[in-house]
Design brief:
Blueprint lengths: L2 E5 L3 H13 L3 E6 L2 H11 L3 E4 L8 H11 L4 E6 L3 H11 L3 E4 L4 H12 L7 H6 L9 H6 L3 H11 L4 H8 L3 H14 L5 H10 L4
Parallel strand pairs: 1-2, 1-3, 3-4, 4-5
Helix pairs in contact: 2-3, 8-10, 8-11, 9-10
Length: 208
């Protein structure tokens, strides 16, 4: 029986995934709502697959994915998230995830992804596969967003959700000064003139 670890900061989502997994014969060995405990539980249980939301507190999901290989080399990571696949699926692939499923899709999609990943295949939306081939030419607004670091992307997303510097700092374990530095970088990298511009841009790209 394949062992599953569920990582999501929404209890209702964790419950739904647990019920689905157990109904189809998977062994849910543990669940958690944050990135730090996700790594601890991975080392403890050595799950076959980790179903992970990347928008989690204490240690963001992209960093968790990158550290999973050291925590448990045999564990495969399947991202289950509401984040826009156009900007995040490729980042998850680069970090080491084996698959990416949006929460807006049917739960049967999650089952298909788990079966594929456990069989040794990757499971990503077409956007990630397209971007992995690379592009040339001038940088469009979308391409400028794609060039942001994982941390910059997470800060941008939280700004678009109306979070204050302190709230962002607390959730990402950063100082207020560091968050301010990220905001300045975002303004420069995205050719934005104000916080309002940043928020509007983020919402145009489904990052709120």
């Amino acid at each position: 029986m394949n062992k599953v670890l569920i990582v999501d900061d929404h209890p209702v989502i964790r419950l739904a995934v647990r019920m689905l997994m157990e109904r189809h014969g998977y062994d849910v060995v543990a669940e958690t709502d944050n990135g730090i405990e996700a790594l601890q539980l991975t080392r403890k249980h050595l799950p076959d697959i980790v179903v992970l939301d990347i928008g989690i507190p204490k240690l963001d999901g992209l960093e968790v994915i990158a550290r999973m290989a050291a925590a448990s080399p045999g564990s495969r990571v399947l991202v289950l998230t509401s984040q826009a696949p156009g900007h995040f699926s490729m980042r998850c692939m680069q970090a080491g995830a084996a698959g990416y499923v949006c929460k807006q899709q049917e739960l049967t999609e999650l089952l298909s992804a788990i079966k594929a990943v456990l069989s040794g295949y990757s499971y990503f939306p077409n956007q990630a596969l397209h971007k992995s081939r690379g592009r040339v030419g001038g940088a469009s607004e979308s391409e400028m967003v794609d060039r942001l670091s994982a941390r910059e992307m997470m800060v941008l997303q939280q700004l678009a959700r109306g979070r204050s510097n302190k709230e962002i700092a607390d959730s990402m374990f950063l100082s207020n000064k560091t968050v301010s530095t990220y905001k300045t970088r975002l303004l420069l990298k995205l050719n934005a003139h104000s916080l309002v511009d940043l928020i509007e841009l983020a919402r145009r790209h489904d990052l709120s």
